[in-house]
Amino acid sequence: MGEVKSLADLRKIKEDLRAKMSLRENSNNPESLVQIKVAMATCGIASGAKQVMDFFIEELEKRNIQAVVTQTGCMGYCFAEPTVEVTLPGKDPVVYGYVDAAKADNIIEKYIKNGELVDGIIPVNYETIEKN
Amino acid sequence: MHVLVCGGTGCHASESEALLENLKTIITDKGLDNEVQVIATGCFGFCEKGPIVKIMPDNTFYTQVTPADAREIIEEHLVKGRKVNRLLYVDPENKEQIADSKHMGFYKKQLRIALRNCGFIDPENIDEYIARDGYEALAKCLTEMTPQQVTEIMKKSGLRGRGGGGFPTGLKWEITSKSVSDIKYVVCNADEGDPGAFMDRSILEGDPHSVIEAMAICGYCIGASNGLVYIRAEYPLAIDRLKTAIAQARNYGLLGNDIMGTGFSFDIELRYGAGAFVCGEETALIHSMEGLRGEPTVKPPFPSVSGYYGKPTNVNNVETFANVPVIINKGADWFASIGTEKSKGTKVFALAGKINNVGLIEVPMGTTLREVIYEIGGGIKDGKKFKAVQTGGPSGGCLTEKHLDSPIDYDNLIAAGSMMGSGGMIVMDEDDCMVSIAKFYLDFTVEESCGKCAPCRIGNKRLYEILDKLTQGNGTREDIDSLRNLGNVIKDTALCGLGQTSPNPVLSTIENFWDEYIEHVTEKKCRSGQCKSLLQYVIDAENCVGCTACARNCPVNAISGERKGIHVIDQATCIKCGACLEKCKFNAVLIK
Amino acid sequence: METIKLTIDNKVVEVAKGTTVLKAAKEAGIHIPTLCYLHLHDLNIENKPAGCRICVVEIEGRRNLAPSCVTECLEGMVVSTHNIRVLNARKTVLELILSDHPTDCLICAKNGNCELQTMAQEFGIRKIHYEGEQSTYREDTSPAIIRDIDKCIMCRRCEMMCNEVQTVGVLSAVNRGFMSVVAPAFERNLDHSECTYCGQCVAVCPTGALTEVDHTNNIIRALADPTKTVIVQTAPAVRAALGEEFGMEPGNLVTGKMAAALRRLGFNYVFDTDFAADLTIMEEGTELLDRLGRYLGGDTTVPLPMLTSCCPGWVSFFEHQFPEMRDIPSTARSPQQMFGAIAKTYFADKIGVKREDLVVVSIMPCLAKKYECQRDEFSTNGNPDVDFSISTRELAHLIKQSNIDFDSLPDEDFDNPLGESTGAAVIFGTTGGVIEAACRTAYEVHTGKKLEKIDFMELRGMEYIREATIDFNGLPIKIGIAHGLGNARKLLQDIKDGKSEFHAIEIMACPGGCIGGGGQPLHHGDSSIIKARQKAIYREDAGKTIRKSHENPFIVKLYEEFLGKPLSEKSHHLLHTHYFDKSKDVTVE
Amino acid sequence: MAIIKLSESKLNELRDVCKSFNNDKGELINVLHKAQGIFGYLPAEVQEVIAKELSISVAHVYGVVTFYSFFTMLPKGEHPVSICLGTACYVRGAEKVIDEFKRILNIGVGETTPDGKFSLACLRCVGACGLAPVVLVGEKVYGRVAPDGVKDIVAEYAK
What we know:
heterotetramer, A: alpha+beta, globular, C: alpha/beta, Ubiquitin-like (UB roll), Alpha-Beta Plaits, four-stranded parallel sheet, 19 helices, 23 strands
């Protein structure tokens, strides 16, 4: 993407990005993907978030699941690191805490493949400014 | 269908495990295994009303569910589709039962403004930031507003500095903008040094662009084209992410010359801290950036008049900046509608210590400590009793039970003998000795004092020594008076914010835990058992069988007693090594 | 002038805008005690770190007490300088400072002259309520200065002097918090640093943390040794300040009493460094004329401007900091060393005493002189030309120890031949004096004419850098003067950058010249004392019958009998020196 | 003339660092960070070179080095162990963890083992309070360290 020359430029970039994102979030779209965000702040990494992220990337590919794995900052649940947020197409995001390789495997097999929740969900307990 | 059972520590204590087992057994009995799954979750952060059960997908939220309620939930709700009304949450204000958790007031306890993107976007991808309205505020300011208009919005929003002092941000910007100079600077204070605080680190790691954008907006307002981030070298990840973000912003032309063709230029450089807490004080920070010892100087002149290399410099901390783009986008009135009369918006706290949900939270100003600790924080770890909460780090004080229901804002905390500080919030339980805690903080201040002014350099050392004397059991009543006088004089005479607040942990614990201090000096007793020198090993006559094991193992022959007779420990000789306790097979050695 | 009205202790005061509360109070006759604060008004030297917190006052509406030394008066301000809150705070802070300070006052070098001791007395401290650990450091003894840093109270005056005024950069605050202290790099001893021993740190130290190396005992021992002939020389600035140690007003000249006291102490001959100052002018003045002559004759390799070389602090300074320019200063030794060289050759022969049996003592306003006389190049077979150098303060102690009632002494004269001097030599003691003395002689030698006006007023004053052009009968000679090494650095940098147009520059390491030397009675922050000494120096000059060095009959005789003429081979050998590169260089292992 | 000894390549590297900051004395702290990165610590020689390159006094450099706890004049061990002493770690038992490291490594805080493998230091809050008590070995962060977990951490590096 090139330089942002004006407010209009910026808004256009934003619209493009939003369109792309909603594409991958929209469950009716056949191309829709599973989204996984791994909290990769200092506490997360210290608790093994990097390994968890690598596990997801490798295993999802091996198991032929179309998914986007990205990193993100601290979700605030430092007591439960590493934390991972999984969004299935068309569904609300679900946050899992204390994720290690075994838990990640469980998440892929049960939640991502079959939509069955697994133990260790961290309920989201805050409001975002969008809602306000 | 899913049945979610809270498996958080708080709920765990209230039998959530038995509940979970019951639910599972009954579901298997009824042959519902394929349709219903029972899941243990992390803490809902509502431990007061635990255990919590949530039924998905209809979002029904049951509170205070006992193991005996399992059958009713399954038979009524899952099988017949009728909600169990008596277990529904009742709104304390209008007494209405709420079935859907999305309508519960509890979820309004936390509101994420500064943390809006943390844990949501990829901090190393500027596009994700832009997709969430990133740089929109900067673009708006540059193309649609004059610097004065932006400053006006900031003033109207009521945002106050989040680094500790609480100086009105808009006013600071205005003063700097009015200082006449060819060069001015915008400085972001990211030298978060309070032990137990990690808000700024989390923001920089999770949402670096919001700080960059805000610095550019500030630069536009005050007429500066140079930005500097003074960041702790101990935060390598935050430094990396910030560097990446700056590079991306430059690539997009959002930093650099002639931003968006408006003629406004702004760029950001990093300066590293090197492990000196006092550099959080803005004059010390500026000296450190100039390559000097981080010693503070007397204000005035304020940095907004004469700062970095004598030029007008606006210093704000990370969290303050993180609020700015939202204020511009959503308006001053929106921001000012959140919080209390004199403290607007939200505050990020790093919850730590003896609390279940250690973590980063953001609540509107005016939230009570009780809400933060019990509802968001999930209560005290291991079911222990709450004793105190320390806010404001080494500059703050310890608040107790009686402060739990007072709303958190700048002025209330100061009135209670503590301060907002940067947002560290450490929870302590019955096992923590308040004299030792005060000593811990003084140890920190002694270590971190720059040494420039006498009251801080020597006075804090003396405070520490007296506290140490108390924890050794050598203190007197006069020592407590000395602590008070000395503490007050240091507050009154020290040069900078560090010294002026360093006695707070002592003064506030004396104020709030007077009995504990008195016990340390008169009874030579430490009720939490933290002060080793004050422990007493005694032999319980009822359990002692006279086996002599303790006496034989005592390295200083402090134990006497006939074989088969009751033994006694001579307190004057005892060195409190604990050997007797270890050797006694009859639980006859007790610690008092 | 914009003025401000404020109330101090219920008194309405009107002061100029920008005045500090401390100054406003002083103008209103209210004394606020200070400790770290130092303001040498006439020399534009100010130390105000606001670190000691002794000068705090209460300002209505402010949460904390404010340090009056740096708090500017504002319109309508209401200040209390001694209510109970302020007094308790001050006393507590002073007790804290004392709690980290040795209480060996009775045997401290600064006993009776210590600002901290005085303050403890004024505050009526009888008990220190906050005792605890004291910070301790290794003592550092160098050729001239002793650092007993246990006594440091972190007023930072020495650091300011060393860095801002002198720009020597040897001292810095090091470590942090309770362990912080002022020290050289790596807390090494001063003799491993670039210290010039100018002694300005000692001159401003309020406590016994920085003092001079005391040689009085060596002198007492030498005087008691019947096999030794002990002679003494006294520098010009000493006579203008010694009286202060005996309670006299600053600016009192005590030349005669001093000579009498030295004689009572038992010195075999009481001489005057002024004699050697006249000799210096002969050599240095001739050198200047020689360089100028060659330069005007078309020799562009001549190093100009010529810089004076009589100040040992200054010599150390350029050896460390500007070694590449060490061919510019005059090669003439300082008067102290010229005196020693002549005393141990010419004079020793005259009285038939072996060099080893002649002890030369100098009384100097200076601490660097202690170091200078220990330099290797100023000794013959291990026997130094000047054996011991003591400061004005040490001489005062010596006199007091020896049951001499200084006040009631008669005025006596110096002995001959090394005690006769001219007015030109006396003014060596103040900034601008050396170059004025040189001009008096150089002018007459160069032009062959008699000076109509002996006083070169254009060279006098207290401005840190001064310049003047002296007309040498149609030849304009451009003169520069700097005192304080920081100012010297500026002139040197100009020379280095090729921007200097001077022919000759006088440099003195200490602000004010030798009258403000590191070995003088302590001024305790009152710069009017230094000005009074300067006046006294010029008074002594004006009162002399002979005021030009080349007219000193004993100098004339010395050349006739011994040296031949200025810059002769013998002169070169005894009266000139060379300089060393003392800078640090990085070499590869 | 005093002589400062440094190997040529290191010296050149150091001079390049100073140059990269335009030999600006205001960049002293950044320069010291880089220098410590090169040498592992800041011996006197390094400080002398920096002073010369930035045209400031060595005393000033030393004053700055001793002010900031991040800078050290002593070489650290191959595996520097740092224990966080932030409040969260303190109330969760960091002191006992320190004691255990001291016992196992048989050195005090600020010291290095005789074989140069480990050095022990205390830190002020690394901001990972969620994991208290926290121990760092090099840049690797260990969270929720209990005293009996110390020997495993040491074993990991002792090979």
